Amino acid sequence: MPPHQVALRRFVAFAVAPIAVVAGFFLWPSQDAAPGRSDLGEGTSSPYSGPDNYLAWVPGGFDDPAFRQKMERLPGLDEAVVVAGDTLWLHRTEDPQGLVVDEPKSPFAFPIDAFAVDANDYAPFVDGSVREEIVRALGAGRAVLGEHSADLRRLGPGGRLVFRTGSVRVGAVVPDDAVGWSEVLLNRQVGRRLGIAHERYLLAQPSEALTRPVWRRTLLPFVGDDPLRVDIAGATRYVRVASGVRPPILVKQRFGEFAATPQADPAYLTIDPAWIERNIVSTEVPLLGTVTCHRKLIPMVRGALYEIAASSLASEIKVYSGCWASRTVSRSPTSPPSYHAYGAAIDINAPQNPYGTKPTMHREIVRIFESWGFNWGGDFLIPDGHHFEFWRVPDQLRAP
Known about the structure:
about 400 residues, ten-stranded mixed beta sheet, three-stranded antiparallel beta sheet, 12 helices, globular
């Protein structure tokens, strides 16, 4: 019997009543992470208070190869650094003694959210408590891990990351904010050697405080027609590319990390079947019928749709447009896996809300989904009005 049919039988009783939604959320076994990997808590890290950094990014990264040099010379900026980033494929990890910690079965590897910077240029953008540690590690050609990544990898200083393109030792573990919530931070030379090629986001410290509109106008001449997202100091939780969504490391923490391998079209992934069997289920929900999502997303989907079905808005739900799809963000081969690859996002009314157009989704439906812990794509830099992805565990599903 196909895995999704087995999963459907296993969870069919779950659909009998709304109370089962709440119960099931807490009683499902946590099988999506390797034994012994602790949970630091959603979005939490050691206490850290960094400098007042301004942020800017464009989808797909900055195209101008001289963009970094232009920013470093831009009047009105005391400091500026451009952070490069791409997905690297982690084949194996080893402890300082060379013993294997993790090694997916061939041909699979872990897709890793990796950034690269010039160590000295990056130094002003991190707190003094970790600055020397980061600069020393990067200067020695070693990797810096955020705490969530080190916990997931079960590695500390001296451990070794073996990618498909080369390897690097871990030099330091620091609070996640200090590495932009990346899974691994490298210096530019090591990053290039391992395959990091795209300039992803800009950090800056202006000579004087700027409003968001002024900060945006400052950068517009350098980004051409690309959509530009800017944030001023303190305006966003995750000071990194795609700052309005959860970083990949936190998606992995919630939904479990999978190993995968790119298909002939590298924007699409073949995911380890064992992870799929543990986590991806097909079940019935109100208004949409059968959906296939991550088991942890189902209670949120069902809760939102029960509420919509009980309102006068049921007719606004036109079509189910998908949940689980094993592909990368924006179908780019160098981007991290999409929320859809984890089964952690659901698309509704896609024909009425095409990607990149002004959303027509009823605002009360948006409010209901947001109340059930979803982040709405209609608010993204490039609107994605049919898209709802995991943002938080909703209050309705939290333990009393």
